[in-house]
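Hey,

The postdoc asked me to send both predictions to you directly instead of through the lab channel. I've kept everything plain text so nothing gets mangled by the mail client. Protein one:
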Amino acid sequence: MKRLLTLLTFILLSTASFAQTIVSFKAMGHNDDEPIFGMSGATSFYFKITPQYEVTGSKLVIYFEPSQALIRDKSYINLFVGSKPVYSARLTKDSIQKITLTLTKADVSADNYLKITLKTLLTITDDPCRDLDNPAMWLKIKNYSYLSLVKSNKNFFNNINISNCFDSKTAIVYNSNPSLHDLKAVAWAYARLKKTQTKNIGVFEIGKLPDSVRNYIIVGAMPTLRDDKRSLVKVSPQTNQGLLYLHKSLTTVVDTVTRMVDVNGKFTPVKTVSQQVIPTEILFVTGGDDAGYEKSITTLGNMNVLNSTFGDYLLVNKAQNTFFKTTDENRSKLSLKQIGGASDFLSGIGSLKSAFNFKNSDFSFTPKEVEIRIVANYSALNPGDRGFFNIYLNGLLLSSEKLDASGKLNTSVTINRYQHHKYNTLEAEFRFYPNNGNCKNSFINFFAEIDVDKSYLESKNPFITSDLSFYQYPEAFNSGTTRIVVSKKFAKYAAGAMGEIIYELNNNINANNFPEFMYSDDIIANPSELKKNNIIALLAKDDPLLKRNEFPDAPIKFDRDFRLYNTDNNTIVYSLSDTTSNGLAQIFYGRSNNATLVLTATGQHLSEAFLAASKSITEQLSTLSSNVCISDVNNNKYLFNINKSSENLEYIDTKSALTRFWDSYNLYILLGILVLILLSFLYIRSRVQKSQDLFND
């Protein structure tokens, strides 16, 4: 295994010098090894090939680990690219095995996706009837498998355009003193990049952009752009006109490349100077003035326009975000097709599964109960055959029923709020066992297919509580209008967090939540805004909006120093401190029963703290009732359920100076008193002993 990893390292480092990029499966989102279970199993991978790579000449390298129990010379692995078989072989005796395939342009679909499917036929006992449910029937695709992609500047200026440039962008750049328009542009650009599954999206002020970042989005109205950036835009938008402009250039870069060279049987690092021609892409989101700039920002939220812009620039005279609704307005009933499900034709014996993913935010409100209805057709069972249909949610078996000779399935199960999470995986399983006498001849006799149009999820009742929790975010903001409010002095630190919020508000099957952006000062001047709209506020700890007590039902007053205790042992869990970079978030109902989310940040790293808080509240939380979240820049987070009667919250600033002194130093004071008592006892004892000695004399 060590020899294999050494070889892999050598390949990675040496290949880089030949203008190739190594992208592992892990880097493309497959963090864990991908298992394939069963006698005849399969798994598929989808990879988006961005235009700066040349598919012809690129390589696919797959490492896999078979179960130790398999009969290797009677077990097989098959590789398909798209729908074409390209590789089949028996397993060897090696613990880790490898497949290498050179790719061609024909291997990539018209929408630039590379589909890889691996299918297995495994054997353990030579008796397929006994092998059916043997748990040792598995094979793992290792996450350090990789694509070796050839970087190509050929046709760079012709192949890259606005429609496909988002897939390779890694950062967003904004003015040092951003306006509300700039913040809105960053947020929508961030949300657009995150939909491409870009993992780490950098958000930088213009003066802090690293030299290594050459593929990014820059936002700002034309009059506000820095001179060196404005000169790159060769199209001039007029007043009241928006512009998306893609600047492309080739830059020669001199860099140091380290290669591993075999010297007398030992790999030794050797540094060489390499000169490379690097493509640079900058997408400008701008406008002739603020009105035109706003039109460009609106266009960022319209996927239909962006995906059909095949040129290097787009002048925007009119912009609107209207989407064709494929679901009912209140989104209480969703077909499996609407949540991305596809009809899979299943055949064979044993376990045959189809998986579907859905989120609570796909509904227009947090569901209290969800009916799962499955409609399917399957081949009729013969006398003596055994067949079952099982429904699993997040790995737990919900229902099971027998199949019969009808070949028709129409079944349902209703789940409560404790059974479904913010993000859910629904599995539908056909399990078929033929009559023992026909086992060896019945591997393809059974087939089934779920009708994804007629199968659906239906929310029966909305989950309504007296207090909001993060479990209900973001769908609590689905109805009504939303305002995103920010402290003016903290505005430039909140841009990345706003991007996370915009993404989550629209991370569902009917993305149409377009909030307005406001400064907290403007909200104070128009307090009715707090009652008419849902509010998401990113505020400084000392923002006047917090000090005016405009959020009387907030679980915690973030503008005051506080401590949170563990109610079980009365120990301090968290104490607010300006020296530590923390993000603090809380969700609650406003004065008009409107959804309200408030985030603030402390410490020196305010951008990172805001971003940490905005990410933490969108994760799969383990509790249904947390309404306060504290997270730090090291990805640690703490969840609390705070209400008016909570005993685990204490405001330090309500105590007198003497009380605060006692709270801070009481242990030291008590220890000092104890030491004084002990010393006094020893002193008195010594005096008494001395008196007794004199008396005896």
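Protein two:
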Amino acid sequence: MHLAPRYFVPLAVVVVTAACWLIHPLHWALAVMVPVLLLTLWDFGQNRHALRRNYPLIARIRWLFEDLRPYLRTYIVESDREGRPFTIDERSLVYARAKGDISTHPMGTELDVYSDEYEWLGHSIAPNEEAPKSWHVRIGADSCAKPYDSALLNISAMSFGSLSANAIEALNKGAALGGFAHDTGEGSISRYHRKHGGDLIWELGSGYFGCRTRDGNFNPDLFAEQAQDDQVKMVEIKLSQGAKPGHGGMLPGAKVTPEIAEARKVEIGEDCISPAGHSTFSTPIELLEWVAQLRELSGGKPAGFKLCVGQPHEVMAIVKAMIETDIAPDFIVVDGAEGGTGAAPQELTDNVGMPLREGLILMRNALVGANLKHRIRVGASGKVHSGAGMARSFALGADWCNAARAFMFSLGCVQSMKCHTGECPTGVATQVPWRQRGLVVDDKAERVARFQSETLRALREIVVAMGYESPWELTQHDMYQRIDSAKAGPLDEVYGFLKPGQLVEDPDSTQYAHAWRVARADTFRRVF
């Protein structure tokens, strides 16, 4: 745990007292009283803090408990199901699976099954024990020279720079051991992504890191050079992310180390800016044309985009552009507003963006309603950490899932909420060498692979229990939730699910009539 500078003097008092006691026990009173008196006088005379001037020495207790509060709350005060963003139960499940421990639970559920916290998947009287042991989803089958057979759970976007070198290494080695993919995040491909050869999904954000010109624009030649490497399996454009949708970012020059500069193709020590929006396109049609260009430049690998859904009419505008141009991305990843990040403005995190469930349903309806779903695979990302969470996403239209924080837990993250400070106690989200040292790559890589494997095993158990052959057979009819205190029903009684072609054939019969009417393929703005 990091000790704030304001505790240095009290700590010095303790050290001096202990030293005096060892020298001569009779001097302990003097050893305590003199430093305490000096500290009291210091607080009384300083002019920065009103509390310390009015309540010398005693006011320091406030800051002590303020710093200890997250730890006391997590380990002493909160129940197993109260913590956020992830509860102790949720984290414990990941830890157990990563370590190979027993992840079973005695005495039945602790949820109130008659409240809205309980929702369930309908099992079958005739479970299908003959279901395949595992599944993969082919992405880019219709449009790519090099389609990718993706695992159903992959590592979501987390950049080198946000995560430590050891964390990136462990994640990628775990992906190589388990046969699944590792999304680079918008910080591009570092030497640590390359070291163990795990499959990569290269994410391109608005800063075009790893394939940018000196002034920050997209460089197609530099992109092609890296994207055609065999380790890169897919290319993902980041339109927005759940934790800070519509917001750019900046890595201060002081944090741009030689290794980060090498990966991002920026200058050492210069501010590394990610604009809020892309400069490569400004309309839905231009976005799709860029997707097609990336597919070609990569040598025929799947290309798509990730977004946190914001304005429904923008999704409809992209769908109209697909119909008009006959260009479709190979995949779309829907990120929920509950997604995480190392640092984001709290007001965006708490108030902007559509949660995964609503965003996934909207994307599913847009693609199914326009007869496009068969061409495009849909990924789901946003607090996915269990087989049950994956099953829910499949029931809403996902073809695979990505997870970020769950894989951080598998590395040993304890949710200390220090990601943005560089003071991560477990070496996951820090660039401080001695903090990284605690994260042993070989050991954590095995945990990463084991967590992914055990989570997919749990998904299969659910599929078997429901009597299905694959998770893609799950639909909204299989998922139930409380409608009110006296009634529960399948999800299609809560949300509207469109039939194939309904959006283009009869948009006025859908809940998206207005969004469809004001959407146009040549602009992201509403057109009335």
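Summary for protein two, as requested: Residues 22 and 28 are 9 Å apart (CA to CA).

Thanks,
C.
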